[in-house]
Every structure is written in structure tokens, then in C-alpha cells.
Write a structure and sequence with these properties.
The complex is a heterodimer of chains A (about 600) and B (about 450). With about 600 residues, chain A is α+β, with helices and mostly antiparallel strands. Chain A is about 25% helix and about 25% strand. The radius of gyration of chain A is 36 Å and the shape is globular. Chain B has a domain of about 230 residues: YVTN repeat-like/Quinoprotein amine dehydrogenase (Methylamine Dehydrogenase, Chain H). Classes of the chains: A alpha+beta (about 600), B alpha+beta (about 450). Chains A and B meet through strand 1 and helix 8 of A and strand 1, helix 1 and helix 4 of B. Chain B: Pathway: Protein modification; protein ubiquitination.
């Protein structure tokens, strides 16, 4: 049988020989190249003839494909990536994948999901531990890219407000926005005219569906503000200092003139907590089920609302407390004091975790953003400052306001609202993880009375403002996180879902002792106690079991194991180790010098005057 | 002015009819899931507590023997079948799903010393104190037939153990010497001895099938190659080894159950230092068997308890005991790696779960997912002191508990003395011997 076609007929002979030699396995979907292969391999004579005929008419790209295959073969060990770009993979149908390879992942999105800091290495870790850590790191990286890729599935886009070229968005009035947006969004802007019981404090429930407000003169009401359905309205016949939803919209804590009261969603008083008296401010830590109360008597009290016990009562020793906020990232409570400091508290410590001197006068308002990175403070010195809470607590930017802000609030996407007299100013930053720039306000709004409470509604582009004349719901496009997580806080959840969520949340209630500045500390290796333990072990055993044994030369056969030679070999190893050490230290030194060099790259004549 | 407000269509988030599933949109942004680590920690703590709550390992006790159970064997083909030999010469075959004895044979006079199944599962071999090796059919005799062994071999000395080759028609017995038999012949193909003491157990290697290991009462463990006429090498320990078991996944690893309350895992290539010394028992260890995964093994002890050890850990992860269980003589890990059987002095065979808190039966996919998630959490936070304490806690009978305390004091005293000696002698004159090397007397090739 004939095997290879004779040279010099239709095709350059070289290539044919090459083909005949290679005899690569072919697949039926590789159309053109299959023909040459069939010609090269032994086959029935009838076939052979048919194969040879179409060869002159063979399209050009067959040649190209063949060439590229050969070149691919050569490139394979060097640049497998380039190969993929050159020739997209083919599917069974012959169609080409226009987007070959895995979907690209934006770097900054992947960074958002990254949990392990690879730069930190464990001291004195064994190779086994190290390899295990490497596996964990690789897994973590894969997970973070997968999570970043799943961002694609998010359904909603955040809102925005842009002025036409040169137009200042701060000049845009609420009425303009209401006119421009759709009906459903326009309905979110409303004013409740309640001049009688004025100034109001207000709070949105964690899902952003319900609104509670309480007036100084005892008026307390909760409503489903989206449908405007009133849930309850009562008058507690006592001054209301602050109002706050507990973990769900069914429970409501109200700081009244004397004591702290807890109501349910029908306005029935469930508890009167007499251990918390003269409370001025309330904060609820939803994952710990702790209600933090700051009182006129200067005590910061933590009440566990799941069991009804006081977890800790801390004396701040700074007089009356009326400025308080929580850090949503680590559940640390920030208290503002009249001496210009902000102190950070956790129920596990009797002393503040940190004290930050922020203002020259007293602190009027404090707010912390949802990532726990930035803290905004305003003081009696009319300053508004933004602090970095990562590590050093340094102010990032400051601005003097004509009146000074009495109330501050951060939105989920990092917008900062400040209430100054009867004006609300809102500043926006570049993105979610950047601090708001204080130069130009994003929005301003003038209200009918002095601002008394500010709260951004979670998952809605709405800012609730409580003031002397009632409650106003402002539209702030781009304030809220557009995509909620259905298992955490779902605005559309049914009663059944809420009940289920409540049980699960209670099951994984975080103990109060775990509140600290870094909530991830629990997952990291406690190096200090590790070293302490090792030290104690060495002391107990009388020797270090992990210490490397000093080199002991092995005895040798046939009379070569004389004492002199043993000593010589020992000395040799010691010298080698010493040389390694010296070499290492020498290698490190030039690096230092190189670092120092570029500062004065070229000597200047003026250098002689430098002292 | 260009403005866009966040405006969701409720239809996308609420189910259409009550028959639909609820819609749960997810967003994995870490800022929406704060306190990830503390919450996972609490979940891990809860999972660990639940594991202890659901730890009910005891499944069944098979009673019927009229004397202590001396040996057990697994059926190679059927998970539900187990064979057991008792001290009165009776062999019983059990069905584990029905938890009933399906066949009883009076096989020997005196003890049944060893029992093993043929690799095909059609027959099994027993050896007894009456100096015989008998081969039996796995299926019972038909109607009107008499229960009779297929073959009987009369030996000169008492056989103390038997094991069948994993692939060929060859088996090995031990007694005064290790004999290797062809199934078709009545005399051994080859006999091997090293020293003059009675050999208590012989085991074929399941991977390198021509390798054997045996242990004798002169404190040594001897390794043989079936293809050679002489033994390979032996290691002498401080005290006698009762049985050995080969790792079914790593051909060169075996574990020896020793009289000095410890188990030793050896690498047969380097016998001078055991890979691991497993200590937790407070009396002689009588039997050991590997899980089919080769990651764990179970040991039976004279202290009336069964322990499960991971191969690479020196401490046991689990201890099983009941009030009525007496000295446990034999133990087997079933071939599906889910159950453990142990035969004890007081005539019972007990069936345990290998994983004490495991839920038996078919799991739904959600159950399975939750189980995997909890397992991972427990693994992640296992070193936290609070979780570790709960996971490690086991109730022990008073006898074992007090023994452990006593032995801890003794060990501490010995260690203190060693440290003192080290401290008050000339540097270099007293060396510290590691726990691993302490119990090895010699290796002979």
C-alpha cells in the first residue's frame, strides 16, 4: 500500500515529509489538516485518490493553521499564554470562542475579597506549617477571584447625580430631583410636619424598611415608610432622648427622661430597664445583641437584649455623655467628650481602647463609616475632621464650617451628611473605600427647623432627617448599597424569613468579650503567646527540643577516624557556617548603600555648603 | 442634570406565588458581612458542642458466644458479614444488618486462635489449640448435610495465628515458627524461624503481598519475604508485641500493639526509630487494625477500652468504652471505614461508629453541605482553647481515669529525674534519649 504521496506533485515535499513523520493523532473536527493526515497515513486506495484531488484547491488558511501548529509546538514550553491568544480554542461545532480563557477579574475587586495578608510571615514556623499555610493561601486566592467574578451577577447599579458641565450638584434642589426621577423614587421624598412634639430623633431598621422617630415631647411612632403604613403611634408622656430599633423591626428601644424602655411594634411597653437611667444616646450592635447606652451620669452601659442582662457598665469619667456612635466594622463604641477627645470602648475593657484628641473644644458629633476606616468628628471649634482609624488615628482632612456640624452620619457607600443648624450638607468621595472630600458638598438642603437627628436609610438612596418641625426624608442618589444580601438583611423578607433569620442570628450571637479593634485578630496566629509557650517549655524540659544539634562528625572506617581528623572536619563545617553568615551580612549591606545612593545621584557644587 | 435613584422592582425580589421558593439574592461583599471571623468562631463553637451532643457511637452488641471472643475476621466481599472465633472453639458468622448470628460451627477443641477469610470470600480458615488448621466453606451446609471442614491439616505444634495471602492461594500460620502453606498441600511450603520463641501473630502486607510481619514473645518483630527462605530483619523492643497491622495504603508502614501500653508505627525501611509512638492506653494493647483509608487505626486494650488513633498523632482522637465491656481482645475496622467491631472477654461483639457523631443513613444535599461546612469550621478553629477543650473532652471510667493520673505522675517523676541528672552532670556525659528511641533495643538484619 502506498503511504506517503509522492513529492513534487501539488504540495512542497518538505512539509509532506514532515507530516508523514509526525503522524499526530487527528480528530474529526480538524477539517483541513485531517486531509493531509489521511493522505499521509495508510488508507484504502479509493480514499487516497479522493484525498489527493482537492489538495490544489485547498484554502490558504489550512497552510496557516499547519504553520501555526508547528510554531505552536516550538513555543509551547516558552509562552503558553501567547499561544492561546494566537489561536482561540475550537469547539466541536467548529465555532471559535470569541472570549477564550477564564473571565478576567478586575484587580481592585479581587482585592476587596482578599482576607490573608501574604506579606506577613510567621516567625519560626516549621516546614509542615508553612506548606499548610501555602495551601490555605492558594485556596483563599482562588476563592477571592471566584467571589470577585460573581460580582458580575449583581442585579442593581448604584444611583448617581451628575450636573451638566460646570453645574454644581449642591445647587440642585430636592424638588428638582423629585421631578426628574421616577414616581416610585419620588414617593420616597416626604415631609412629616409635626411641629407640636418637636425636635425629633429617628432611626431606620437594619433592613431599611421601617422608620421609627421620637419627639422631645414624648411622641413615638414607627411606620413602614415605603408603603407609609403606620405601625404604631404613642405618646410616652415623657421626654424622648433617643430611639433605636433592636435587631428587627419588632422591638424598639426608647431612651426616655428617666429610664430606658423597650416597646414592641404595636407600641406595647415590654420592658422598663431601670438599671439604665437618664440615657442620652443609644446604639445597637446587631451581631452581639448588645444595646449600648450612654447616660448623663457618665456611664456607658452594655445591655444584652437576648438575655436581658447588663454585660458591662463602664464609667467613662468624662462627665455627661451625649455624643456616641458605633463602629460598624468592629463594634467598638466611640464616645465624644467635652474636652475634645474621642474615646473608643469595648465591653471587655474597663479602660478605653484608645483616646484620640480631635478638637480644641468639645466634640459635638462623631460618625464612623461602614468599612470602619474613617471617622468624622465635628467640634465646638467649628471644625469637621476626618480621621483614619487604621492604626495611627491621624486626621486626613479638616474643614472649618461656618456654624459647625451638630450631627453627622455616614451612608453605606461613604457619603457624609452633616447637620448644621437647619441645613444638611452631604459630601461624597471618589468611591466606596475613599474618604469624602470636604471641598465641595455633593448636596445641600435647608429644612424647616433645626436638625436634631440624621440617619441614612440602609439599601435606599434616602437620608432621614429629624428636626424641630418633624421628619424629612431626603433623596440622596448614590448613598446606599444597591445589592443587599438576602441572608443578612433583606428588605423584602417575609415574616417566616424574618423568624428564621432571627433564630440563626441568635444562634451565632458573638460574645461581648470578642469586641476589639481588629475583629480578624481571632483568626490570626497569636505569636506572642506562642513564643511564651515555647520559652516555658524549654524551661520545663531543661533543653530546647527544637534546637538544631551541633555538628558531630561521623566516625569513619579504616583508620581515618583519628581525633585530629574529626576535629578537622568539625572545624571545616564550623568555618563553612561562619562564612555563610558573613556572606549573608555582606549581601545585606550593599542593599542599604544602594538605597542611600539615589538621593545624591550627582554631586553638586553646592553640596559643600550642606551641613 | 443627570440623576439616577436606586429603584428596585419588588417583583424581582418577592416570589410570585406561595408555591415558589423565596428569592434570596446574594452579595458577598465583605462590608455587608461584618464580623466574619467572630461569627465563624461562634459557629465552630456551636458545631463542636453539637458534635459532642450527638456523639453516640455504640450501635449494637452481638451476643451469642458462650465464651470470650478471641478473634474476628472481615468478609472480603460482603460488608455485612463478620466471622468470629471464641475461646470454646466455636466460630460464628454474623449478619451485621440483621445483627444476628447466621451460622454457628464448633470448629476446634479449645481456643480458636486465629481466623481469616480467603481473598475471594468463598471460604475461611481457622486455627485452634487442637493443633489443626481447618478450611471451611463460607456458605452453610445444605439440607441433611453435616457441618464439615473442606480440609483439615494436622500440625505438630499449636498454631497461634493465621493470615491469608491477598492475591494467591497461599496462607501463613505461626506458632513455633512461621509456616507458609499452599492451599493444595498438607505440609508447609516453607518454614521460617529466628529465635526459639512462640510467635503470636503473623500478617501479610496487603500491597507488597509477598511481605510478612510477625511478632514473637521474645519481644521482637520479624519481617519476612515469602520469596526468600530466611527472614529479612527484626527489631527488638522493650516489651512484647501482641500483634501488628500493615497500613493498607502505605506498603512500608505497620503498627505494632505492645505490652507496654503503647503502639508503635514503624517504617519498615528504618526500624531503628518508630515513625510515631502512640500512647494513651493504660494497659497492654492487645489488637490493632487499620482503617481502609490508612489514615487511622483502632486499638483494643486490656484496660477495657477501644481507642482510635490518627496515624500521624501520638494521642488518640477517640475512646470507646461501656460499663459492661471487659478486656477487649480483638478489634476490626470494617471495609467501608464507617464502623468498628470489637470482641471482648464477656462474650460479646460490639459494633461502634468510627466517627462517633456521624449521622447514619442517607443525607440530603443540604445536610451534607451543612456537615461539610461545620467540619471545615471545626478544623479552622480547632486550636482555640475553648473549642479544643470541648472537642477533646471524653468521659472515662474511673479505673482508666485514675490510672491515667497515676501514670502521669510516674512519668513526670521519671522526667524530673532525667532533667536533674542532665543538670548536675558534666555537659555531654548524659544525653537526652527521645521518646521514640527509648523503647527500641536493637535492630538485627
Amino acid at each position: 500500500m502506498e503511504t506517503a504521496p509522492k513529492p513534487g506533485r501539488d504540495v512542497p515535499p518538505k512539509k509532506n515529509r514532515l507530516q508523514a513523520k509526525k503522524k499526530k493523532p487527528r480528530r474529526y473536527w480538524e477539517e483541513e489538516t485531517t486531509l493531509t493526515a489521511a493522505g499521509a497515513s495508510p488508507g484504502p486506495p479509493g480514499n487516497k485518490k479522493r484525498n489527493r484531488e482537492p489538495r490544489p484547491q485547498r484554502p490558504k488558511n489550512a497552510n496557516i493553521a499547519k504553520k501555526s501548529r508547528v510554531s505552536r509546538k516550538r513555543q509551547l514550553p516558552k509562552k503558553p499564554r501567547e499561544r492561546r491568544n494566537l489561536e482561540p480554542q475550537r469547539s466541536v461545532s467548529g465555532a471559535q470562542d470569541p472570549f477564550p480563557g477564564p473571565a478576567p477579574v478586575p484587580v481592585e475587586v479581587a482585592r476587596k475579597f482578599r482576607r490573608i495578608d501574604k506579606s506577613e510571615k510567621l516567625p519560626h514556623s516549621k516546614s509542615k506549617t508553612r506548606s499548610r499555610l501555602e495551601v490555605a493561601e492558594a485556596e483563599e486566592e482562588e476563592i477571592s477571584t471566584k467571589a470577585a467574578r460573581s460580582e458580575l451577577l449583581l442585579a442593581e447599579e448604584p444611583g448617581f447625580l451628575e450636573g451638566e458641565d460646570g453645574e454644581d450638584t449642591a445647587k440642585i434642589r430636592q424638588a428638582d430631583i423629585v421631578e426628574a426621577v421616577d414616581i416610585a423614587s419620588a414617593a420616597k421624598h416626604f415631609d412629616l410636619n409635626l411641629r407640636q412634639f418637636g425636635p425629633y430623633r429617628l432611626n431606620y431598621s437594619p433592613t431599611g424598611r421601617h422608620l421609627a422617630f421620637g419627639g422631645r415631647r414624648g411622641h413615638v411612632a414607627t411606620l413602614d415608610w415605603v408603603t407609609k403604613r403606620l405601625m404604631c403611634e404613642i405618646n410616652v408622656m415623657e421626654a424622648v432622648r433617643d430611639i433605636r430599633f433592636l435587631h428587627s423591626e419588632a422591638l424598639l428601644a426608647v431612651a426616655q427622661n428617666r429610664w430606658l424602655h423597650i416597646y414592641d411594634n404595636q407600641g406595647i411597653e415590654l420592658h422598663c430597664i431601670r438599671r439604665c437611667d437618664r440615657v442620652t444616646r443609644l446604639e445597637f450592635l446587631p451581631f452581639h445583641f448588645l444595646l449600648a447606652t450612654a447616660s448623663e451620669t457618665g456611664f456607658l452601659t452594655y445591655l444584652d437584649v437576648s438575655v436581658g442582662k447588663i454585660v458591662a457598665a463602664l464609667n467613662a469619667r468624662a462627665g455627661r455623655l451625649d455624643v456616641m456612635t458605633k463602629n460598624p466594622y468592629n463594634a467598638v463604641i466611640h464616645l465624644g467628650h467635652s474636652n475634645g477627645t474621642v474615646s473608643l470602648w469595648s465591653p471587655a475593657m474597663k479602660e478605653p481602647l484608645a483616646k484620640i484628641l480631635c478638637h480644641r473644644g468639645g466634640v459635638r458629633a462623631v460618625a464612623v463609616d461602614s468599612t470602619g476606616t474613617y471617622m468624622a468628628t465635628s467640634g465646638l471649634d467649628h471644625q469637621l475632621k476626618i480621621f483614619d482609624l487604621r492604626g495611627t488615628f491621624q486626621p486626613l482632612c479638616a474643614r472649618t464650617l461656618p456654624q459647625g456640624a451638630g450631627h453627622l452620619a455616614f451612608s453605606q457607600r461613604g457619603l457624609l451628611a452633616a447637620g448644621m443648624g437647619d441645613v444638611v450638607n452631604i459630601w461624597a468621595g471618589q468611591g466606596k473605600a475613599s474618604p469624602p472630600s470636604l471641598e465641595q458638598p455633593y448636596l445641600t438642603h435647608r429644612l424647616s427647623g433645626h436638625v436634631h437627628g440624621l440617619h441614612f436609610c440602609p439599601f435606599e438612596d434616602v437620608l432621614g432627617v429629624g428636626h424641630n418641625g418633624g421628619v424629612t426624608s431626603m433623596l440622596v442618589p448614590g448613598a446606599a448599597e444597591p445589592n443587599f444580601d438576602g441572608l443578612e438583611s433583606n428588605p423584602y423578607r417575609s415574616q417566616k424569613q424574618r423568624q428564621e433569620w432571627e433564630v440563626k442570628a441568635l444562634l451565632e450571637k458573638v460574645p461581648a468579650e470578642l469586641i476589639c479593634l481588629d475583629p480578624r485578630a481571632l483568626a490570626e496566629v497569636d505569636v506572642i503567646s506562642l513564643e511564651q509557650e515555647k520559652k516555658e517549655r524549654v524551661e520545663r524540659l531543661g533543653y530546647d527540643p527544637e534546637a538544631k544539634a551541633p555538628f558531630q562528625p561521623k566516625p569513619k572506617q579504616k583508620g581515618r577516624s583519628s581525633t585530629a581528623s574529626l576535629v578537622k572536619r568539625k572545624r571545616k563545617v564550623m568555618d563553612e557556617q561562619h562564612r555563610d553568615k558573613v556572606r549573608q551580612s555582606l549581601e545585606q549591606q550593599p542593599q542599604k548603600q544602594e538605597k542611600a545612593k539615589p538621593l545624591r545621584a550627582r554631586p553638586s557644587a553646592l553640596d559643600r555648603f550642606v551641613r | 442634570m443627570k440623576v439616577k435613584m436606586l429603584s428596585r422592582n419588588p417583583d424581582n425580589y418577592v416570589r410570585e406565588t406561595k408555591l415558589d421558593l423565596q428569592r434570596v439574592p446574594r452579595n458577598y461583599d465583605p462590608t455587608l458581612h461584618p464580623f466574619e471571623v467572630p461569627r465563624e468562631y461562634v459557629r465552630a463553637l456551636n458545631a463542636t458542642k453539637l458534635e459532642r451532643v450527638f456523639a453516640k457511637p455504640f450501635l449494637a452488641s452481638l451476643d451469642g458466644h458462650r465464651d470470650g471472643v478471641n478473634c474476628l475476621a472481615k468478609h472480603p466481599k460482603s460488608l455485612a458479614t463478620v466471622l468470629s472465633g471464641a475461646c470454646d472453639g466455636e466460630v460464628r458468622i454474623w449478619n451485621l444488618t440483621k445483627r444476628k448470628c447466621i451460622r454457628t460451627i464448633q470448629a476446634h477443641e479449645g481456643f480458636v486462635r486465629g481466623i481469616c477469610t480467603r481473598f475471594c470470600g468463598t471460604s475461611f480458615f481457622t486455627v485452634g489449640d487442637d493443633k489443626t488448621v481447618k478450611q471451611w466453606k463460607m456458605d452453610g451446609p445444605g439440607c441433611g448435610e453435616v457441618e464439615e471442614p473442606l480440609h483439615t491439616i494436622l500440625g505438630k505444634t499449636v498454631y497461634t495465628g493465621i493470615d491469608h495471602h491477598w492475591k494467591e492461594a497461599v496462607f501463613a500460620t505461626c506458632g513455633q515458627q512461621v509456616d507458609i502453606w499452599d492451599e493444595q498441600r498438607t505440609s508447609p511450603v516453607c518454614s521460617m524461624t529466628w529465635g526459639f520463641d512462640s510467635i503470636s501473630s503473623v500478617k501479610f502486607n496487603p500491597i507488597e503481598t509477598f511481605l510478612l510481619g510477625s511478632c514473637a514473645s521474645d519481644r521482637n518483630i520479624v519481617l519476612y519475604d515469602m520469596r526468600q527462605a530466611t527472614p529479612l530483619k527484626k527489631v527488638i523492643l522493650d516489651m512484647r508485641t501482641n500483634t501488628i497491622c500493615w497500613n493498607p495504603m502505605e506498603a512500608f508502614i505497620f503498627t505494632a500493639a505492645n505490652e507496654d501500653y503503647n503502639l508503635y508505627t514503624f517504617d519498615m525501611r528504618a526500624l531503628d526509630t518508630p515513625v510515631m509512638v502512640h500512647m494513651d492506653h493504660v494497659s497492654a494493647v492487645l489488637d490493632v487494625d487499620y482503617s481502609p483509608t490508612g489514615k487511622e487505626f483502632v486499638s483494643a486494650s486490656f484496660d477495657k477500652s477501644v481507642r482510635i488513633f490518627p496515624v500521624d498523632k501520638s494521642r488518640s482522637r477517640e475512646v470507646y468504652h461501656t460499663k459492661r465491656m471487659q478486656h477487649v481482645i480483638c478489634v476490626k475496622w470494617t471495609s467501608d471505614s464507617k464502623y468498628i467491631m470489637c470482641g471482648s472477654d464477656e462474650m460479646n461483639i460490639r459494633l461502634w461508629k468510627a466517627n462517633a457523631s456521624e449521622k447514619l443513613g442517607v443525607l440530603t444535599s443540604r445536610e451534607k453541605a451543612a456537615k461539610d461546612y461545620n467540619q471545615k469550621l471545626k478544623e479552622k478553629f480547632q486550636h482555640h482553647p475553648h473549642i479544643k477543650r470541648i472537642a477533646r473532652h471524653r468521659h472515662l471510667p474511673k479505673s482508666i481515669y485514675s490510672q491515667i493520673q497515676e501514670q502521669r505522675i510516674m512519668k513526670e517523676a521519671r522526667r524530673r529525674k532525667e532533667v536533674n541528672r542532665l543538670k548536675h552532670s558534666k555537659p555531654g556525659s548524659v544525653s537526652v534519649v527521645s521518646e521514640k528511641k527509648k523503647h527500641i533495643v536493637a535492630v538485627v538484619k
